[in-house]
Amino acid sequence: MTKIHFATQLQKYIIQSIFLLLVLVGCKSLDISNPGPLPQPPSPDSEVNVPFVFPKETLHRIINSQIPEVLLDQDQTEFGSGIVGSLKLTRNGSIAVAALDSQQMTLKLPMRVKGEVGLSKNGLGSLFRGKAPLDTEFSPVFKLNPEINPDWTVSIKDFELLDLGGKLNFDILGMQVDLSGMLERELKRWAAQNLQDDKKLFNLKPLVDLAWEQVGRPFEVNWQQGSTGFSIRPEQVNFKEFFDKNENFTVWLGLNGKIQSHPADAIPSRAFPLPALSPNFSGDNKLELLLPASISYDELDEILGANLNGKSFRVDSKTILTLDQLQSSAFGELLAIETDFLAERNNGDPIEGKLFVVGKPAFDEELQALIFEDINFKVISEQSKAKIGIALKKRKIIRQIEKMAIFPIGDLLEESTEGVRDRLGLSTPIADLQIENLKIVPEGFYPTANGIRIYIQGKGKVGIQWK
């Protein structure tokens, strides 16, 4: 009987020893001397791409607003064949636009021709000095290929007069004179002088810069009783224009760049300049942003300390654990929190030491907060019973830390959303742009030497309201 009792006691002792050994091994499994390298944060690359499909009415309005009322005004001009006079060509109604193919278009330009013509002073002109009035209408049709160059200037390629669209006849001394050929030559001569491939009709850059100054201007996000500035550094502007199969003028416009963060007292005052144009190969409507925000360890200590410092929680029916003097830092890819602890027991002396806690920063969508996952800790104490006692309550302590170590970032996400909506919205004379279906969530948390880098990802589309 004594042998059986001794064997039972020995068995219990062995089981308890093995359990205690496993606990101690578990505590020692966290090697705080080798945190590993800091993570490499991603490049804050961002992209917006918008396919503009111009309604025909809008395109007609734009073209009609850009072509001047007076097209040609010549005085005392020799038209050939001994005919001289003055000639004024003005627009006479709305210009009609049609697509020939994906790149070329036709313009039907109603004109009114007014002036007077007569014979030159040589020959019969010395006898008949009178001039016949000229007032007629015609609608020439032009073929052209407008092109926006990489430097934002506009040129016309492949200009051709397809049809004069009428006859320019007048009566002089009872003779019918047809000046249609003369007018056609004048139009072609004007085009040769002004619409060559190397001629730049006008520069879009000043207009684009005005719009970009509104969209690309740095903006602020207020958070944690302070503010952070964000600016867009454009690296590439992508552009493609063509007529689609329904003869709609289409522009694919995209911007690639990086979003930079700035301290509140060092925010740039104006937008960074736009680069030259590059080809665009995408017709997708998309907005993908990556905003880099930061939390210093001092800020993190302040918020987490409010939840943990001096706070007590019960780890079992006999022990209350109190944490204090929290300090956070990087631990490789993880976040480390070092805190003093005091464990007060009903049936024994208090034990004290430090907890070196590490965890993976993550986002809790329901709480809209930075939390910690996969928590582990190491007990640092000169009291051996502290290591054993705390280790035995490891799971309960981890659960309590998970509940209390919360850093709210909902305000940051809300402010970022409003900042993006406000900055990327644009009102122009032809259309209003607004961000639609914008969703902003943390892409990741990256411990650095000075704090945690939070990358906020924004995805959405650009809505277009044509006027």
In words, what does this structure look like?
The structure is a single chain. With 467 residues, this protein is α+β, with helices and mostly antiparallel strands. The protein folds into two domains: 30-54 and 204-467, Super Roll (Bactericidal permeability-increasing protein, domain 1), CATH 3.15.10; 67-202, no CATH class. Helices cover 24% and strands 48% of the residues. It has helices at residues 2-28, 56-66, 180-194, 205-215, 297-308, 384-392, 394-404, 410-424; strands at 45-53, 70-80, 83-91, 96-99, 105-108, 111-119, 132-138, 141-148, 153-163, 169-172, 175-178, 202-203, 219-223, 226-243, 249-263, 277-279, 286-296, 312-314, 319-331, 334-345, 351-364, 369-380, 407-408, 426-427, 431-447, 451-466. The strands form five sheets. Strands 1, 13, 14, 15, 16, 17, 24, 25 and 26 form a nine-stranded mixed sheet that branches. A hairpin with a 2-residue loop joins β10 (169-172) and β11 (175-178). The longest helix is centred in the N-terminal third of the chain and has 27 residues, at 2-28. The radius of gyration is 39 Å and the shape is rod-shaped. It starts with a helix and ends with a strand.
Short description:
The chain has 467 residues and is α+β, with helices and mostly antiparallel strands.
Key features?
single chain; about 475 residues; alpha+beta; Bactericidal permeability-increasing protein, domain 1; 2 domains; 9-stranded mixed sheet; 6-stranded antiparallel sheet; about 50% strand; disordered N terminus
